[in-house]
């Protein structure tokens, strides 16, 4: 399965860096796959991707596909953004516990606040100069 790619008007205040270990992350996200790195020595799953394991410092990492759904852990609304992001305010962000995966920080789409535990679907917002990982409430009839 792949994440929905949603064409969105506008541009990001700062375009993502697509070099080093992050090049593969952004290339995969552009295809609708959320991926990250996992240590082959200790098994630690990193998010965001890392060039070495933050737990044991090994450099022997493999790329794994992360789940597309998860549960809302926490959310907040940003009213004063840092630097160039101040023009985007207000916007909502969420911390999501992915199903059998790590905890991720994303933009939260939708107009109303969701209670903790709300089931969410990850999506990729495609803007003029880059991509943005986001989440939206999972429809009740989704599997």
What features would you highlight for this structure?
143 residues; 5-stranded mixed β-barrel; 9 strands; 1 helix; mainly beta
Word description of this protein:
This protein is mainly beta. It is built from 1 helix and 9 strands, in the order βαββββββββ. The chain has one helix at residues 21-30; strands at 5-7, 35-39, 45-46, 61-65, 69-78, 91-98, 103-108, 119-127, 130-137. The two termini are 12 Å apart.
Summarize, please:
7% of the residues lie in helices and 39% in strands.
Tally of extended strands? 9
Cα-atom radius of gyration = 16 Å
Structure classification: mainly beta
Number of helices: 1
Main beta sheet:
5 strands, mixed, barrel
Low-confidence stretches: none
Name the beta content range. 35-45%
Distance between the termini: 12 Å
| Overall pLDDT confidence | 91
- Largest beta sheet: what is the strand line-up? 5-6-7-9-8
């Amino acid at each position: 399965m792949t994440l929905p790619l949603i064409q969105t008007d506008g541009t990001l205040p700062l375009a993502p860096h697509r070099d080093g270990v992050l090049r593969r992350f952004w290339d995969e996200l552009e295809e609708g796959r959320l991926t990250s790195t996992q240590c082959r020595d200790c098994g630690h799953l990193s998010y965001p991707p890392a060039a070495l394991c933050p737990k044991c410092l090994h450099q022997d990492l493999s790329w794994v596909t992360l789940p597309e759904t998860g549960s809302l852990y926490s959310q907040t609304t940003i009213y004063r953004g840092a630097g160039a992001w101040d023009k985007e305010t207000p916007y909502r962000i969420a911390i999501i516990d992915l199903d059998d995966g790590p905890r991720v920080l994303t933009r939260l789409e939708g107009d109303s606040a969701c209670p903790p535990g709300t089931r969410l679907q990850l999506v990729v917002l495609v803007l003029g100069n880059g991509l943005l990982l986001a989440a939206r409430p999972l429809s009740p009839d989704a599997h």
